[in-house]
Structure formats: C-alpha cells, structure tokens
Design goal:
single chain; alpha+beta; Non-ribosomal Peptide Synthetase Peptidyl Carrier Protein, Chain A; Cathepsin B, Chain A; 3 domains; six-stranded antiparallel sheet; two-stranded antiparallel sheet; 14 helices; globular
C-alpha cells in the first residue's frame, strides 16, 4: 500500500460512511480540524474505518505531541513515517488545561514577579461528572469552581466574586454583565461562561456542542465590538458585541466572575504547602477509576446500556486527559525552587507526555471496543487502564518526593510533615 492508496481510502471513508460535509476542502494539505472539522474522536473513527474496511494498518506507535495536522500528516503516520513537529518560537510552552484556572492564572502572569504555576496543583485530578447513564463530562451540574476561588484568595490574596445569579433570568444577568464591563477598572478581569460552539470565529478542536467555556472580555473604543481573551486556547481578538452576547445567552451556559489583580501578592510558603496537601490524591487516580467504571457498566449485561454507546459515553476523555499536563507545572514549581538538574525535570515531562499519549491510545481501543464488543478488545482496554494507572501513580510518587525535598529545604525540621492522606480519604 502506498500514499496514493491511503489518500484514496481516507477520501472514500470521509465521503462515504462518515458523510463528512466539508469535503470541498479535501486534499493532501487540508487541515483535519480547521478544514475537515475532524476532532480527536472523529479522527479515531476515521482510523477505525480505515483499519476495518480498507485494511490500512494503524501503527502501534503513539502520535507525536504536535499531533497530526493535515491529511498529508495522517498519510505519513499510516505509512509509518515520522511527522515533522511544528516549529515553536517560544522558549517555554505555557500549559493550558482548564479554562477557569487559565483565566485566573493569566491575571497573575500580568503581575511582575508572581508565579502562576503553583495554582495548577491538583488540576490533573480536578472535578468532572459521570451522569446516571455512565457518560463522562468535563462540565455539568456537579462541577463547581468554589475550590479555585478559595485557594486563589488564600494563595494570591485576590477575591474572586461570582456575579452571575442563577435565580435571575438570562436577560437580567446579561444586563449585569454589561454594567460590570462598562464600569470595571483597568486591573479588573471580567470572566463569563459562554458556549464556544456559537462562536464560528473560534477554533473548536473538540467539535463540542455545546461547548461551555470561560473567557475574559474587555471594552474597545468601538461600543459594538469587544475584545475577547481566551487564555486556555491562547487566543485573543476583537469580536462583534452581538456575537459574544449570543454565545453568552445560550441556555447551555451560566456563570461569571470578576476580580481585581491590583492586590495580588506572592503566595506564602505555608499556603503553598497547604494547597498541595489539600489537593494531592496520592492513592487514587479519579479519571482512570471513572473510565474503568464506565467501561464496565457498558459491558455489564445487568445494566440497561450497550457497548455501542461506549465511544459516545467517553467522547470527552480527550478534553480531560489534557489536564494531565498540569503535572508539568507541579514539577516545575519544585524544580525551580530547589535548583534541580534540567535532565530530571525533562525526564518527568517525558513521563507526563507518555501518560497523555496513553490516553489517546486508550481511546482508540475504546472506539474499537464500542464498534465490536469483542471480549478480547475489552481485555486490552482494561489492561491499558491498568498501565495508565501505574504510570500516573509513579508520576505522583515522583512529585511527592520533590514536594518533600522542598519542605525540607523550606521549613524547619520540626515543621515538616510528610504527605498527607486527607485528600485521599
């Protein structure tokens, strides 16, 4: 099989069983997400069709961190060739893994001398929802942000005020938002939850509908156009006021905060220690546990579920798996404070990358299991979950060791308390 055969198979699959409606853009240089509107889940379905229908062998090796951006990249990947990574002129990649944390951290980054990285402690395990139908979601009624508000105030001295009142109408809340925007100080940050699916100008890598997401809004000299800052997806730009309000007005979203960075201060060491101890789950990995539970429920004949719904039930797993990159910020805090060798930090970053890539491989196995219900594939899924569980536990053990070193170097010997079972209980 050569490049031309694979290119034809990709095109036939997208036009045929996947019924892609964006094929006017198809070609070797077509971008999978931006032009063909393939998110990570649809890409897995494409790979499954290519393997089962066209006999294309999907390599076992992991996709690169930079990802497969174009049809040409995908063809090279399926032919077993390496993909040239995208160039990055930044000296250091700033990890974006949680929209609320990213907005709050962006304000800290605007304060000279302050470090936002400690605020990412625990984001790797932060809240998600599994509903009564055993579907995983990054957003839902049980997902709250009071935890982040509390610790932002304790760490940086900044009070995050919730302005959205869910007991009032959407129109009343939008009117309050516009008043706050009109009167806010230059050091204040106004956050609002909107449905990004209704912002066609914005990139939607996960093809989410709805797509609840927090951004920050500023006025411009033109009353009909507002400046939107989306730290989580590294985007900022001017959009029409009516477009932004339309996305805020959707019934799928409700929330907003305002805070002033003017009073921000550096975290005290004792508060950093308390935060780490409060959020560090040494003995369990909640997302892996939840995924295992969801797979079992969809394979259990006693449950009113079917294996064919499994891929849809776990379609948001990539959104949550990105949060594992927050471990890099955790290691970076102690690496910098202790002056540890660069190589040690880079080795842990490699482990974190392997963890994230393992979730991508897991999702492909789940997609295949959902299509077939094959018990042998089920065994592979549970085995992959066990491997991920072990890898994440090892990463946590390494991070704990660095935390203990930091405690020893920072506090008097009588003040050092080895971690911390409270968060696991």
């Amino acid at each position: 099989m050569n490049d031309a055969h694979i290119l034809t198979a990709i095109e036939n699959t997208l036009r045929g069983p996947m019924a892609n409606s964006h094929m006017d853009e198809f070609g070797p240089d077509a971008r999978l997400n931006e032009d063909l509107h393939l998110d990570s889940v649809l890409l897995l379905h494409l790979l499954l069709h290519l393997e089962t229908i066209h006999g294309v062998e999907v390599p076992e090796r992991e996709m690169s961190k930079s990802g497969i951006g174009t049809v040409r990249d995908l063809t090279a990947f399926l032919m077993g060739r390496s993909i040239a990574p995208e160039t990055d002129d930044e000296e250091e990649i700033d990890i974006k893994v949680h929209c609320v944390v990213s907005c709050l951290s962006a304000a800290i980054k605007a304060c000279p001398g302050l470090d936002h990285r400690p605020f990412y402690f625990g984001v790797w395990d932060t809240g998600f929802e599994v509903d009564d139908a055993y579907r995983l979601s990054y957003h839902g009624p049980s997902v709250k942000h009071d935890h982040f508000r509390h610790w932002f105030r304790r760490l940086y001295g900044v009070n995050v005020i919730g302005w959205y009142n869910k007991d009032q109408t959407k129109a009343e809340n939008i009117a309050r938002f516009e008043r706050l925007l009109a009167n806010k100080r230059s050091t204040e940050h106004l956050m609002v939850m909107l449905d990004m699916y209704h912002l066609p100008e914005r990139e939607n890598k996960f093809n989410q509908n709805p797509f609840p997401h927090y951004v920050m809004i500023e006025k411009t000299p033109d009353a009909d156009r507002w400046f939107m800052h989306d730290p989580d997806y590294r985007w900022e730009g001017v959009l029409a006021r009516t477009t932004i309000l339309h996305a805020i007005a959707q019934p799928t979203v409700a929330g907003g905060y305002i805070f002033d960075r003017a009073e921000a201060r550096a975290p005290r060491d004792e508060d950093l220690r308390a935060y780490f101890e409060a959020v560090f789950l040494e003995k369990r990995n909640p997302m892996i546990d939840a995924t295992r539970q969801i797979v079992r429920a969809h394979l259990d004949p006693a449950e009113p579920l079917d294996h064919t719904d499994l891929a849809q039930a776990l379609r948001e797993l990539p959104v949550l798996a990105i949060r594992k990159y927050a471990y890099e910020h955790g290691f970076a805090v102690f690496w910098r404070a202790l002056g540890l060798p660069d190589q040690e930090f880079e080795e842990w970053c490699d482990e974190i990358e392997a963890l994230h890539q393992g979730f991508r491989s897991l999702q492909y196995k789940i997609t295949k299991l959902s299509a077939s219900g094959d018990p042998a594939l089920a065994a592979q899924v549970f085995s992959a979950l066990d491997v991920l569980d072990q890898r994440e536990t090892q990463i946590k053990a390494g991070l704990k060791a660095w935390f203990v070193k930091w405690q020893v170097s920072t506090f008097a010997s009588g003040e050092v308390a080895l971690v911390m079972t409270g968060a696991d209980q």
